[in-house]
Fold each of these.
Amino acid sequence: MTQKNDVPVLVFSFLVTAGLVGGGFWWLTQKSGLNVGTLFSQGSSSTSPTNSSNNSNSSSVQDFAQVQNVPSGLFTYGGSTSWAPIRRDVDAAIQAARPEFRLRYVNPTGEAPGSATGIRMLMRDELAFAQSSRPVTEQEYQQAQQRGIKLKQIPVAIDALAVAVNPSLNVSGLTVQQLGDIYTGKLTNWSQVGGPNVPIQPITRPVSAGGTIELFAEQIMKGRGFGSKVQTVSTTTGAVRKLAQTFGGIYFASAPEIVDQCTVKPIAIGRTSNELVSPYQGSLIPPSQCPAKRNQLNEAAIRGGQYPITRNLFVVIKQNNQKEQQAGEAYTDFVLSNQGQTLLEKAGFVSIR
């Protein structure tokens, strides 16, 4: 009898409790303005990214035809010489797909082309946007601010700095420290780094040339100056030609400008002698098999950070709410689209996505 009498009591208690909970929930939603649908939808959407910038949608854009807000007209641009393969392969495809968006590369007057020159030209209103192979410096941000200009940089690709020697020189690789010591003049003979008894002839472009030299000075030279034996050549084309004729020569440049060359030999670089990593994939292709076969960029090691000298490439934009800003943002969206990133890889760079 006791158990039978307990059942109605339990049912009654349950109904009272449910009524109190339901009434309290009704009061909360009515008095606080809480939307029940919103409450339960927030959990399912809380991990969705917020598209806060114009180029944040680029990852969903498949090809150039899908890029939105593309202005019509002729837009000047320029800057880093490391971007030359991109201007050749990617920019040509952009203009073929979107003829309303015309691009004209502008060489500087009285200055060597490079990242720093391009950013200066952008601040002087000589370019609609600039291409840089290193981040905008704090000094450049301040100079732009003094001119009433706000700069924005957007990373679009990963690049590596490759080191090359004469193809006849028998040397397997160098550490970052050895590379710096060669260019300061501390190491002067290849026998000091496991090579033949041959004087080392370092070659570089001018210190004022741009982002590649600045990256080398920062990451490799670490504030030290170039030695007196370093020879300066104005362009990478000239430097590669000189290196091919100099048995003890060595030169550094953006990886796409070095890795697939037939007349020079890219070598492995490492943080230590036990961590030497080649900038190319697999075995080195000898000059006798080039150009039928060419060395391919070691994308996995560069993207993964195993290769020790890497950097981002940036589009630098003036945020002035004018057509120049729209052009720079559209160009960025082109390069960050799936088609753009694929073409970047074909040009010898590593996609950033």
Amino acid sequence: MTTTPVSGKTGRYWHRLEDSRLQCDLCPRYCKLREGQRGLCFVRGRANNEVVLTTYGRSSGFAVDPIEKKPLNHFLPGSRVLSFGTAGCNLACKFCQNWDISKSREFDRLQVSATPHWIVNTAIEKDCRSVAYTYNDPVIFLEYAVDVARACREQGIFNVAVTAGYVTKEPREEFFNHMDAVNVDLKAFTDRFYWKICGGHLEPVLDTLRYLKNETDTWFEITTLLIPGENDSEKEIEAMSGWIMEHLGPDVPLHFSAFHPDWKMRDIAATPRATLTRSRTIAMETGLHYVYTGNVHDFKGSSTYCPDCGETLLGRDWYMLSTWNLTHDGNCGNCGRRIAGVFRDKAA
């Protein structure tokens, strides 16, 4: 926790302790704050005897992306999404590849003032079907994200979250109630990794995944960044794939993404392509239907196939669709099998 001047919009999910500190209840860190202190995420802090969100209405930037870049391969494939984030994060991943945003402790990163309605109007102007809350974890700017999401739904714009899923029960319910699709970053499948590399714990993330599966209609996919020597062993991939199969089912898409040296892990080499291919094979042999490779050019590993007949349904060259063999309602164009996901007619 840090002590700097704090001001902002009153936040939700906190309570007062007997020793007069305020406890933030948004995430499993439960930061306990005295006046002027900020939590580890840096953007939630104590001011005027309440917990406030200091980044409400301010963004670190915007971009128009293909939805596949989130990555989401089974949610409105080929469509455009308006991506934005703020600053800060409630994990401390040493390998963070957006570290200049997520680890920012300077608000000069937040150059853009953006009201919820401005964001919605920009999405419409740019012909985006969705708005994505990304770059840094949106659970830490929950109040802002929820207000934007409400404005989006009023105009028929979908909401997409890219998150590590490190959030407690009540805010989790509010946040995901406003999201139409989510990519959850399952960083590894050992608590050792989460504690050593990220400063957190695995179980809250698994709780989030179980919640999404069992208690929501939100479409979700999972991404794991494979770091050589840290979370890429065959044993760990088998354990993770088996857990997903048992608790979430075979139709949840899983993305294995290539690490590149960054932030505080510049001494580790980039992930070999063979590691991604091996991991994809292990996961599919476990029974998962839709397993992908990312951050590498791999047509086979990034394309979608029918689990029954093997037909190429969505061919992908990086993030561009080169094949479309789905019916308008999301069935295999060859054998008619229903393909898991949220599909519309092919994006123009």
